[in-house]
Every structure is written in structure tokens, then in C-alpha cells.
Design brief:
The protein is 27% helix and 24% strand. The chain has 666 residues and is α+β, with helices and mostly antiparallel strands.
Amino acid sequence: MADAQGSEQPPARASESGFDIAPLYGPADVAPGLADRLGEPGEFPYTRGVYRSMYTGRPWTMRQYAGFGTAKESNERYRHLVEQGTGGLSVAFDLPTQMGYDSDEEIASGEVGKVGVAIDSLEDMRLLFDEIPLGDVSTSMTINAPAAVLLLMYQLVAQEQGVPKEKITGTIQNDVLKEYIARGTYIYPPAHSLRLITDIFAYCRTELPRWNTISISGYHMAEAGATPTQEIAFTLADGIEYVRAAVSAGLSVDDFAPRLAFFFVSRTTLLEEVAKFRAARRIWARVMREEFGAKDPKSLMLRFHTQTAGVQLTAQQPEVNLVRVTVQGLAAVLGGTQSLHTNSYDEAIALPTVKAATLALRTQQVLAYETDVTATVDPFAGSYVMEAMTDEVEAGARELMVGTLGVIFGVEHADQEPAPLVDKIRNAKRPDGTAAYSTGTAVALVAQDATKRYWAYDKLKAASQQPQIISHDDRLYVFDDVALHLLEEDGTVVRFFKLPAVRIGMVVELPVTGTTRRELLVPILTGVLRLSLGGHQDPVRMVADPVLTQAGPAQVANLGDTVLFAGDRGSLLARCSPNPATASSLLWRNDDVRPLGTVPTLSALHVAIADDQGTVLIRTRATGAVVQRIVHGIPLAGAPIFVDLPSGPGVVLGDRAGIAAAYRLR
């Protein structure tokens, strides 16, 4: 294509994410509806930044990452950085600390103090922050699996300094999902790790209200090879899973979401990086409002820390790294970061020298105080290239989140093709061959010949999982986390009834003997409801017990005339009455205080209940009496399995190492 002077336009360059960057952008390259996609700074969808004034009032937090050797050696570096004007510290821990080992453990040999500071005790934490005023400094700690322990140590040291817990500020990384993906420093299985994380959410809400409870990290995935689009797609998907876990544990989304934070890389590809940060804010705001029903504006804000890209530093000509880091830091600032770490130019060679660390901090200070980038908010707003690239990154991230991770966004157009979502969502077949699919915010009916589709828009709220669809009498009933909806033949959705509390378990269908009627058991936070399909009467509260108010995802197992209700701190066994108007009788309950390690399982005569330490109680189904206690000693990898052994009935257990043990039942 020729330009105005008649010369040929150069070919488009490929971005890091794979889309083309055109040599020239104009109004036609920006999709309609830009004003709605932009909004105002500090307002939904936060494309232009999470605060109205951004850096015009004060700059970002300059948070330098450091930690090596002993607590005393790291303390000396921290004190130097504070004296030079840094407003935030970021602690690097050595690998033994990250993995929960003391420095004198045999397995820690050769790794103590190598990639961070070794912290084995409260005394080490005191030395680490000696003469550093924790009431004035915000501290970020890059710790994941043992995060709860290190956070408590920090809190104790701050309180010893006389800092009220309400004024302790900082962040723990606490992001174990990315450890399974990119780093490998995990200790516990995923489910147990998620429970620890949500416990920290609940603890900080009351004890450390100004502490950021998690830093959901894309940096490590980017350093491992993820593109900018992949970085935000995978990171936001992790964030969604944390929110689902917290809601499933009974937390209100607006009680914990304002303290969620994120952590991204910043590369030298400045335009794409700025677009990445803007797209990430827009996606997160929409997910939190439409997927989880968040009402607090702070719950919708994607606040993030940025570190410049260590993977782009070179050991050859290390001084050139100063230029790279400056461009990377500028990209983070133009993208609206809340805090920033700039790498030292010699980090590709060894731990940073004092001179290099000081220059890294000076780089940020020059950007903040000797340029005009802090004079106005979101200077790229409205730029043809920036708005087009932001849309490209957002579209690419959404596609990855839908196709790869099963995180479903609402359907925006009635003629949108649903086929790519089919394997990722819940579905139900109707007698006429029509299939129904739930996408989290919409329901699709797809005819057998795949030519006719009905779409229903009811903004279904599926906080903890995709909605469940049940087919009965040619009608479809759709459960989300707030209500049961009836899907009519014309594709509209009518609310059948509203649940009295957030649902925490999958709905179980019960056939009614001698009839075609079906009933549903709906586990909620405060008990279990029983509902008869085919009528619009109010549901009957079948079981209400405090044990379910402490549950993780409750489990309901249909066993004919007996139904097992289980929470993660106990279990209930109740008998179903044939009369739907009669509440079932409570046969017995398990009061073991330990969280259950697996779902309880049943045989013809027994119930097996395993705690999180591998201890299994065998109870009778009829009375709940304990007939056998098995102390396996190692957490189980799955539920106990009842078997017929040559010597009689038995149970088989499997632990995380894959070792199975068979026990004969007395």
C-alpha cells in the first residue's frame, strides 16, 4: 500500500502476542463504542486507571526487591534503600524458606541464603526489620506455601515495634496456583493450598485490614515464556479460581476482593505492555461485576505491582540493561501500575551491588520527578494504536480464558457461535434431542440439527461453578448460585425461586417412588433444601445444622432412601421421607473437629470418614457408631474405597505417594 508520497508501506510487524502491529493506525482501526470501553479514570471499567488522579497527586510506590544471605545482611540493604528514598520493601526468601524447611535441614544444604534471605524463626524476622519503621514502610513478601507463617511473624514484629495492626501495610504473594504452573515451590495439594489461602483472606479481613492478602502473579509465567496476552489470561484465570474458592468457603465477595492484588512483568515492547495492563483492568472489572456480582467499586479494581523483565537482561554489556530497565519501567508507569521494582543492571551476573541497586531506584525517581509522565492521567487514552492494541490483547486473553480454562464470559450477540464452549460447560439433553448449555451468564438451546438456537439472557450468577441444568417434563431448570430458574420454550428465563443463601454444593435429583415426579436436594450454606419439581411451592428445609455453616463445598450423595450430607468439618446422615412435605429425620452426625480430607463414602453397612491427617473412622450407616479407627498417618489422595477382601469386607486407602493400604473391617 502506498502512502501520500507514493512510497510503499512496510509490512506489519508481529507483536509478542502474535497479532499484527500495523505501520499506521487511524480512526477505522478503533472499534465503535470506545467511550464505554474507556470510561473515566477511577470508574468502571477502569481501563484508564483505578484512581481518578493516578500519579498527578503522588507517584507509584517505589518498591525494591531484595534479600540474600542472613537476616542481618538483608537488613543492611533494606536500611540503605530506605535511606535512599524507597517507600516500599520487597523481601526475597531463599528456597528452603519458600519450601518450609529450616536452614539446618539436610535437604537445604547448598541453598541457604542463595536466592533470598533465610528466615527460620521469629528472631530472624526481628533481625530482618531491625531499625526499619514498619508503621511507615509497606512491605511485600514473595512467599507462597508458608505464607501464613511468615505473615504472622511479620505481624508480631510490627506489633513489637508498637505499630497497631490496623496500620500494618503490605502484601504477601500467597499465589500457589502459579507455583504449579511456572515455579514449583508448592508444598500441599491444590485443594488444601486453596483452603489455606481463603483462611488468610478471612483472617486479614478482621486482623490486618490494610494488608493485601494475595498477589496473583503473571510475572513468573511471563519469565517462563508466556506472551503478554497469555500472561494476563492465565493470571486472571487464577484470580477467578481464588475468588470462587473464597465464595465457596462462605466469604462475601466484597469482604475480601478489595484486598486482592496482582503482579505482572513489564517488557521493552512498550506499546503492547501498556495495552496489556489496560486490557487486564477492563477484563477483571467485568468478571467481578458480572460473574461474581461484586458491588463495592474496590472489588472491581485490578491493582497491580510490576517488576521489570529479568529475562531480558544480559550478562554481556550489562550497562545496556540500564536502558532496557528504563523503557520497561516507563511502560509500567504508562500502563498505570500501583508499585514498581526496577531491576539492577548487573542482576544477570550476580546479586546486585549497592551501586547497581541505587541506580535502579534512581531510574524510578527520574521517571517520577524529572519527566512529565506524572502530569496527566493515562496519556495514551484515545490513541488509535493504543486503543486498537488494547482491544487486540483483551480479545486474545478472553479467547484463551474461554477455550483453555473454561472461564466463560457472557454472550453478547444472539448469533454468536457457541460450539467452542461445548466441552467446557455444563449441559443437559432434552427428550426431543435439544441440548442446553450454560455459559455462566447465559443459556443456549441447540436443536438436534444444530440450525436453530434460542438464547436466554438472565445474567446468571455462577460464583463457585458453572450453572447446573436439570431436564424434567420437557422443561429445563437452571441453578446458579442465587436462584433456580425455569427455562421456557421460547428461550426466556423465569426465576423459579430465590435461594436463601449462597449454594455450596451440587444439586442432587431424587425420584419419588411410584410417580414421575422428581425432587431436588439443594445444599446451601445453612443446611439442605428439598424442592419438588412440577410445582412452584416453596422449598422445604430438609436439614439445618451448624456443621454445614462451616463447610467447604458440601457434598450430597443419593443412596436411595438415605442421603449423606457432608461438610469439611463433619458430616450428617439423614433419611429421606417418601412424603416431600415431610422433613427427613436426622439419623446421626459426625462431630470430628478435623476438616475432612475426602468426601465420605458408603458401603451397604458402613460409612468411611477420613480427616486431613489420614485418620479414617468407620461408622455404621444405621446408628453412626464408630466400629473401627484406621490411623493411616498420611493424608489420603482420594476417598476410602470399600472392597471385598478374601478375608471379608475391607477398605482400601491411597496416599499422595500412590501407596495403597488395605484394611480388613472388623
